[in-house]
Amino acid sequence: MPALFELESTLVERDIGQDIHTRLSPSDKEKRTLIIIGIYILVILILWKMPILNYILYPFKLLTVGLHEWSHAAVGCCTGAKIEGIELDPDEGGVTRMRGGIQCCTLPAGALLVFCGFNVVASKVASIVLGVLLIILLFWARNWWPSRVITIFFILVIVVLWVVKDGEGVVYFVLFVGVMSCLYSLWDIMDDLVFRKVNESDASKFAKLSGCCPAQFWGITVGEITRYRIQFDSTKHPSSTAWPPSNLVVKITNETSILYRGAFLSGPYSISASCIETVHANRLNLLTTDNFFTPNLNPSIKCGEVWQVELAVPSNGIGDWTIDIMCEILFSLNKVKYNVSIFACVPEGATIDDELQIFDGEAIASQDGTTTVYSPSIQYEFLKPYDIFKLPDLTTFSTRDIHLVVLTHGIHGSMLDELYLKEALENKCIDRKTDSIVFFMSDVNHSYTEDGIEACGERLAKELLKYIKWPSNLNKDNIHNENDSRDNIDSDDSDESDFKDKPLISKISLIGHSLGGLINTFLAGYLHSVTNGAFFNHIQPIHFITIATPWLGSTDLSWYIKIGLQLGVVGQTGKDLALIARSREEQEKARGAVQEDTGEEQPLLLALAQPTSPSHIAVSKFHNRTLYANTANDLVVSFRTSSLYFHDYDEEISFKYTINDHLRHVLVSLSPLDITNDYLSKCMGSSPILYDKVINPEDIPPPNEEMDITIEEQIAREWHKDMSWRKVFVQLEGEAHTHVIVRRKWVNAAGWQVIEHLLNEHSLAPIQIFQDEATEERAENARLSSFVGAIAVGDLVKSTLGPKGMDKILQSASKGDIIVTNDGATILKSIALDNAAAKVLVNISKVQDDEVGDGTTTVCVLAAELLREAEKLVNQKIHPQTVIDGYRIASAAAYKALEESAVDNGANPEAFRKDLINIARTTLSSKVLSQDKGYFANLAVDAVLRLKGSTNLEHIQIIKKVGGFILDKKIGVNQPKRIEKAKILVANTPMDTDKIKIFGARVRVDATGKLAELERAERDKMKEKVEKIKAHGINCFVNRQLIYNWPEQLFADSGIMSIEHADFDGIERLALVTGGEIASTFDHPELVKLGYCDLIEEVIIGEDKLIKFSGVAAGEACTIVLRGATNQLLDEAERSLHDALSVLTQTVKETRTVLGGGCSEMLMSKAVEEKAKTTAGKKAIAVESFAKALRQIPTILADNAGYDSADLVARLRAAHYEGKSTYGLDMANNTIGDMREIGITESYKLKRQVLLSASEAAEMILRVDDIIRCAPRKRGQ
């Protein structure tokens, strides 16, 4: 029997096993069904987000959403709910609006029809049910008419499939709907837990109802850290058999249900924790210490797991530890609940258990938590995430010299990723005295990084502007429409007027890891664009640093990753990284940080790189641009894209990784390595820095003309066009992408040395070489400021140029005095300028005035036009040095043409005098004396020729008299008013000695008689001096100093005319005119040279008495008396005559002349254009621009006269190309004519100086790349 039973038992077991095998093996029909299901899933996933093709699924999406919502409604009706309507959205799911009902029944009912797709046997019955439901759905659907059309369509499809081939088509139709329904259920949960787009999922609502959902769980969520500082003092606890303890035990429990360990996409629900002595916890790393230790660390405490660590109590019974607990959730805002307990290990022989609980704490998100202390020996400090990441209030700072450092995390990252970098930077800047460092870390993008680079960058920018209280009045103007949300920047509306004039910070640096680098790029462009350039004009950009950033996208990753990115697996961000061209709507959204719409669809990363985009311009403004790139082991961002393509690193680097590498990466992420002594020692070994070099634009090789440029190379070339990049390449073992930023202090210790390099090479407290209040503008800012300032000066005075130029009124702000003039030198000397380049141009014009005396307006206008043309070339990305080289070539050609056109009549006095008169007439044509330019031209020529080649205009005196001279003094009392055949002694001697003037001496007398004797002696001494003067045989004495009454009477008694207090310039001119010399001693009359003239007489001009010397013997000086109606008119007449005299004196020295009226400028322009034809490269463009600037002079002459400049200049240019090289503008007749016949002549020296000075000024300003404004000198310094 036992044997038989055993046999039967064996048979039964065998039969059961075969039955089980048979049941588990699918039939051919089931295999076919499973294959069809797999095909359905693949097709649906491919078409789900595919552009254009996704419309194929649109009806099925709508059908599935409709059936799902109908299930809710149907069960709602059965449980007494009132259905208000159904809203259908094929992309985001639908919503069934109802009141009442039993939610625990209605919520899961939406998935009831999922099963119909897999019950193949009942497919026909299911199709009937579907048809009925579709008919009912027509009355509940509230959406637009396409919903109803599609519903009717599917009803007809079911009818047709039921009829064809005995209803076989119904099977596949129902199966497809079932698969779609399953996928929608998964999508609904992911939408809530991961993407959180629009509608809340049924699972989330049901979890709320049941109270067991982790979505609202207590604990810490993504990007958060809680910190406990535990201070233990055993002496504060009552003595007992269990005290003092030998050790403490810390237990950290992840209280999330173990069921959530597999919920990776909504988690992972794990935490990392460390427990370290506070003295060690505050250290950045172990690189600079000999006191090596291994931290107590668990990088991954999974759901339901307890981590226990034993802490040794120091011998003195006092200990201090810091416990950090960090959330490792990546994909959602769910929370992890945890508990921290501390126990005292009681000694042997105690009457209680082995452990005595002395502390218990559990965290509640964003609250203080629940903490229980069971022993007075424990003191603790609890820091919530808010406390650790809290931003300081900038308005409380005593200074605005604040350096804001923006730290930006990457995709699926959080502020916690930059915590080590932040604390390292804080430690580095702890002793900073001169300004404050503030670290800006915002959580506006965590769990939203899939929204796209532009969305993340815009959110971060608005948060930053709000934080620094950006004054809206600094925006020069709005560059977008009022309805654009970009204009509605959040800002602080506080009433503190102190914050309205300038921002609260003075410097800014941007540091981004991975995608954070691209977000910062968009951020910089947005800040530049939305403030219309004001942001970086008021806030100095310092460092722009990217760490493992995909500058060129992620197109060189494995094919399965690229397909996922293109399909939108990681949202719009994935499409941006896959370099998918943006639609016109997406370009419109991102226009704040990219170039203007070109009409072409292009990827966002390419648009950001364009030289005209605000992002490119903003990044170029930073003083330093550095990128860190992993050469190996970075499976997320390849070396080629993080290194920005171009470099001269020789080592061969692999860009491709296999699926095994990515699986290994996932496994390591789920189970981090243990932190051991060996691991930390290796991290502190040899430096991972392999390459550190600055790549300049000239280092970039030219493109290969035989091959098409890839979009990645195009992006890289755009970023290297006009800026230098410091490139640092590192090699790290393990997970390099997270190591390089030290995402977790101990787990990613391999990156310590990289962060150390960043800290040492990029000081946030740069060496201060300027005093306080000194400022600096660099690179494009400085050049733009120079262009604007210099061009503004030219535009200011160009309307005064030429015979028809306009006048300007200059009014003194303090005295109210006015000057009416069109003299360029006077205008520029009278105005206060703040722009550095404008002051340079003013100084150049002053040199022109000093050298030649005229042409200051012309030199300013020509220099401004040269710079205007140069600005256009620089904006076309032609280097300033190339422009300078071209201008030098053009200037030399123009100078040669001007020299060849010059005429020299210096050997022919008659012809030369005619040239001088024409020059004077031309000069005076643009002045107030133009109506009488013939008379004043002859007067000026006569005066200059009297100087006999001298250029000292002080020998020509100009005296102005209102309403109607020579020596502006009176003849003494009782002296002759008229003397003929005068012999003149010009002197500079004291004639006022009527009392003793010995400084520091005293004379004491004891009687009045002795005082009378002193006065008598003084008078006798003066009489003796007068007698010596009379011994010269003169009849006129002119003294520089005063002549008192006693000597004046002596001269009158002798019939000698005495003139006192003549100015120094006056007596010098008088000596020259009369042929005398100025005497100071009179003991040797034979050595003194007297002056002579035919007549000296006192004349009255207007109401003033003046002394006129006439009949001088061809002296080298003269006086011109001007009379006019007003002081302003006289001043302008003097300036006009002075300009003519100045030009004439220079022409007498350099006798060559050229033609005016724009003739010389057009002649030089033609020569420069000819030179451009033989000039190679981009320099030819600069040469042509020089010619254009020269043609602007006749253009402005015509414009100022109100003539048609386009017509006149075109005719003049044609005349010169026809060989009429003497033609210019006839301003009197609004035509062109022969300047030689008309008599429009100018000094060759003047025209040459204008050309050279304008060219030098333009070259000088073009070379500027830095403007430093020195601090004002303090009182007492």
UniProtKB/TrEMBL annotation:
InterPro entries found in the cross-reference section: AB_hydrolase_fold, Chap_CCT_beta, Chaperone_TCP-1, Chaperonin_TCP-1_CS, Cpn60/GroEL/TCP-1, DUF676_lipase-like, GroEL-like_apical_dom_sf, GROEL-like_equatorial_sf
Domain called DUF676: residue spans: 401-641
Transmembrane feature ranges: 33-57, 121-140, 147-164, 170-187
Source organism, top-level taxon: Eukaryota
GO molecular function: ATP binding; ATP hydrolysis activity; ATP-dependent protein folding chaperone; unfolded protein binding
Keywords: ATP-binding, Chaperone, Cytoplasm, Membrane, Nucleotide-binding, Transmembrane, Transmembrane helix
Protein's cellular compartments: Cytoplasm
GO CC annotation: chaperonin-containing T-complex
Residue ranges, compositional bias (Basic and acidic residues): 479-489
Region (Disordered): 479-498
NCBIfam families reported in the protein's UniProt record: chap_CCT_beta, thermosome_beta
Assembly with partners or alone: Component of the T-complex protein 1 (TCP1) complex.
Purpose of the protein: Molecular chaperone; assists the folding of proteins upon ATP hydrolysis.
Family under the similarity heading: Belongs to the putative lipase ROG1 family.
Descriptive protein name: CCT-beta
Species annotation: Dentiscutata erythropus
